[in-house]
Design brief:
Layout (H helix, E strand, L loop, with lengths): L4 E3 L2 E3 L3 E3 L2 E3 L4 E5 L6 E6 L3 H20 L1 H18 L1 H12 L3 H25 L4 E4 L2 E9 L3 E4 L5 H15 L3 E4 L6 H12 L7 E3 L4 H10 L5 E5 L2 H14 L3 E4 L5 E4 L5 H9 L14 E5 L3 H13 L19 H16 L3 E4 L14 E4 L6 H4 L6 E7 L2 H8 L7 E5 L3 H10 L4 E4 L18 E2 L4 H7 L1 E9 L5
Length: 485
């Protein structure tokens, strides 16, 4: 029988899940809550042996899983989706302790997205129509074949949802999967595999391995039996995984964060723009899509700031279980130190700290909502992803300058634009380098749309058929006209 730990009234396994069963490790790592530093679990720490077990299981299970076809795989994905829906509160409460996102957000929109991911990809895979055409005296079709075992490595922010976002298309396409969640927030992903077991997935189809990136992660990504690699995290880690992918000639997709512009023109609805700008502090700024560089038309910057500060002043730092709280703590003391280090260096370098810039009196992993007016566009806080509650403020005098500033970093994940002018929305929307550009809105997602970044924000696209194609080998079948009947 597998070991279980109690997390504030919920039982969770700290073990791996390999070949349809819980598997232990001789060593563990400590998982502490960002909220109060309490020890949540001693989590099994995988190594090269663990990685070999998981990939071997995925490789054995692959032929039968692939042979089921999309209609044969869909019932498993839909059963899993139903089980997620039935356990939203249970998963949300544990993830709140483990990652510290607001509990009400997890319950209302984040955890349930996992169920929608599995249903959406089951439906998309079943609805796939082979492209067919006639050319050069032949009948042509494009056929998807499952690619083989996939390794998926996910980040510590929104761990449950982002794991389902990546694993659902892999499973729907016919790949078997080994998932490695981040070591700072592994518990909700472990809960997913209780539901995988309850849904009756064949052994080896979907596996969980926990541990450190440099240990088990390195072993997973360098194994030659792995035929797809998908990663969300930092550019530094992506470079290591990319080298392993190149050595083994394995397709690799990566989502690597952003330094996203939030552009407000003078013709915008300033109340709406300022309210949405203040919401970029949500989840303590630990959202890769957040518009962290406020680029404001110089003609309205003072009016905008009055509205912005009023919205931020209404925010409440506190316990993410509390309904009154709007700003949660950062994930880990190491990350808090990293965020604070950016602000401290900005202060020493002559950037203006407009608001915030320190820890609040409640201590812990919280950090005040911070706004910095940089001395130049080359300031570190402008050019590097901070991934915390830190925004920068710059102004522009023309549409051309706004676009130039928006495109002045190495990143290109997303952007946010506020304007009431349709032609400007089209011009600027096309000109800003970003995988997703929102106009007068934010975080509105269509699961069939492509998702990914330009520059060092990533490689490849997720979402819809783009993800299903990634986890497939595409074959063109050509038959000479008149030779078969």
């Amino acid at each position: 029988m597998s070991r279980r730990v109690e997390i504030h009234g919920h039982t969770v396994s700290p073990e791996h899940y390999i070949d349809g069963a819980r598997v232990s490790s001789p060593t563990t790592f400590k998982d502490r809550s960002p909220i109060d530093g309490s020890l949540l679990a001693e989590v099994c720490r995988g190594d090269a042996t663990t990685a070999n077990l998981a990939i071997s299981a995925a490789a054995r299970a692959f032929p039968a899983w692939a042979a089921l076809g999309p209609h044969g795989r869909a019932p498993y994905l839909r059963r899993l989706a139903d089980l997620i829906d039935a356990n939203v509160d249970h998963i949300a409460e544990v993830e709140c302790w483990d990652m510290a996102m607001l509990e009400r957000s997890l319950k209302a929109r984040v955890i349930g997205r996992g169920a929608r991911n599995f249903r959406a990809y089951a439906d998309l895979a079943c609805a796939y129509e082979e492209r067919a055409w006639e050319s050069n005296g032949t009948a042509n079709r494009v056929i998807r074949h499952p690619s083989g075992p996939a390794v998926v490595i996910t980040p510590w922010n929104a761990p449950f949802m982002l794991s389902t976002w990546k694993c659902a298309p892999a499973l729907a396409a016919g790949s078997t999967v080994v998932l490695k969640p981040a070591e700072w927030s592994p518990l909700s992903c472990s809960m997913l595999f209780d539901l995988v077991d309850e849904a009756g997935f064949p052994p080896g189809v979907f596996n969980l391995v926990q541990g450190m990136g440099e240990e088990v992660g390195a072993a997973l990504t360098t194994d030659r039996r792995v035929r797809r690699l998908s990663f969300t995290g930092s550019p530094e880690t992506a470079r290591l995984i990319g080298r392993a992918a190149a050595d083994n000639i394995v397709p690799f997709t990566a989502e690597l964060g952003g330094k996203n512009p939030f552009i407000v023109f003078a013709d915008a609805d300033l109340d709406a723009a300022a309210a949405k700008a203040a919401l970029q502090y949500d989840d303590a700024g630990q959202v890769c899509l957040s518009g962290t560089r406020l680029l404001i038309d110089e003609a309205i910057v003072d009016d905008f700031l009055v509205r912005f500060h009023a919205n931020v002043d209404a925010q409440v730092l506190g316990d993410p279980h509390d309904e009154a709280t709007t700003i949660s703590p950062l994930i880990h003391p190491e990350h808090l130190a990293r965020v604070a280090g950016f602000v401290d260096r900005a202060r020493r370098n002559g950037d203006e700290i407009v608001r915030g810039g320190k820890q609040p009196e409640l201590g812990g992993n919280w950090y005040e909502q911070t706004l910095i007016r940089p001395r130049s566009n080359n300031s570190e806080v402008v050019q590097h992803e901070i991934f915390g509650p830190v925004l920068t403020l710059q102004t522009f005098a023309s549409e051309e300058e706004a676009i130039e500033l928006a495109n002045s970093t190495e990143y290109g994940l997303s952007g946010i634009l506020f304007t009431s002018n349709a032609k400007r929305a089209e011009r600027v929307g096309r000109a800003v380098r970003a995988g997703t550009l929102w106009v007068n809105c934010f975080l509105v997602r269509d699961l069939t749309a492509p998702f990914g970044g330009a520059g060092i924000s990533g490689i490849g696209r997720e979402g819809g058929d783009y993800a299903l194609d990634f986890y497939s080998d595409l074959k063109t079948l050509q038959i000479l006209d008149g030779t078969v009947s």
